[in-house]
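Help needed: design a sequence for this.
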């Protein structure tokens, strides 16, 4: 991490754990001796750099041909990995690569994909900030891992997270359940028209939606899901046999966080569900 001067903040750890794009558990597993104070220092550095990065992303998204300065994006990439947010790194790398090749259209495509999401993530980290200190990081010696273990009630009680998968193919539903059933509770829904009634009874932690279904397609289900207050930001992954750039762009714009092409690879399914849930 760089030694640039910036204000050190304290944060509400339970609030941070709820941020969908922030995988603090992965950070703790990779560095079991990282203290809360050190981690808060990383987040404080993120808050100092994020506004410039967000402005640069917007410039690329709105007018890629005129956006020349991607230094802030370059500085942000390693920091995102350190704080446990990998979601925006691939597109940021693609922006850098496209700029190097002079492909402004491709740079704009990737900037547009992450523009709103990155700004929202920055706002969420700001909302988790509490008091600020002028002198240095928080004085706690507690390791990040021990705090996370104490706060992770679902893990301690053994309660499984719920994945709701909607697909008109019984074979796909059974395949998803077979792959995810050991680690998660899987609710299989073969009729998309029943989704609204089902959501009045169950509360999924992640949705897997088939893209093409005869009664109602996956795109049409997103407004139904987002209509429930508790699912305004619940992750949605599309299962589709049409993995085109147009479909990916449309899915992202409508609120999905990822997509998986069928027939799917079991390891890829596990990896993407674990990443987003």
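Sure. Designed sequence:
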């Amino acid at each position: 991490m760089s030694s640039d001067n910036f204000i050190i903040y304290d944060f509400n750890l339970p609030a941070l754990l709820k941020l969908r794009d922030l995988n603090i558990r992965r950070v703790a597993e990779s560095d079991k001796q990282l203290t809360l104070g050190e981690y808060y220092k990383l987040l404080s550095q993120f808050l100092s750099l994020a506004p410039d990065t967000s402005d640069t992303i917007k410039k690329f998204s709105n007018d890629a041909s005129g956006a020349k300065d991607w230094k802030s994006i370059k500085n942000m990439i390693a920091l995102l990995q350190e704080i446990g947010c990998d979601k925006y790194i691939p597109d940021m790398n693609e922006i850098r690569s496209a700029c190097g090749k002079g492909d402004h259209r491709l740079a704009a495509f990737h900037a547009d994909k992450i523009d709103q999401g990155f700004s929202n993530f920055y706002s969420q980290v700001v909302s988790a900030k509490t008091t600020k200190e002028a002198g240095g990081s928080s004085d706690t010696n507690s390791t990040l891992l021990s705090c996370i273990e104490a706060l992770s009630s679902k893990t301690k009680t053994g309660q499984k997270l719920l994945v709701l998968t909607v697909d008109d193919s019984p074979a796909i539903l059974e395949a998803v359940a077979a792959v995810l059933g050991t680690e998660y509770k899987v609710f299989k829904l073969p009729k998309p028209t029943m989704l609204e009634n089902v959501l009045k009874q169950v509360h999924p932690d992640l949705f897997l939606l088939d893209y093409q279904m005869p009664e109602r397609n996956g795109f049409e289900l997103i407004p139904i899901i987002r209509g429930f207050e508790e699912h305004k930001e619940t992750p949605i992954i599309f299962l589709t046999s049409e993995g085109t750039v147009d479909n990916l762009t449309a899915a992202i714009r409508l609120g999905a966080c990822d997509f998986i092409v069928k027939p799917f690879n079991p390891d890829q399914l596990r990896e993407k569900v674990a990443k987003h849930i």
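The mean pLDDT is 82.
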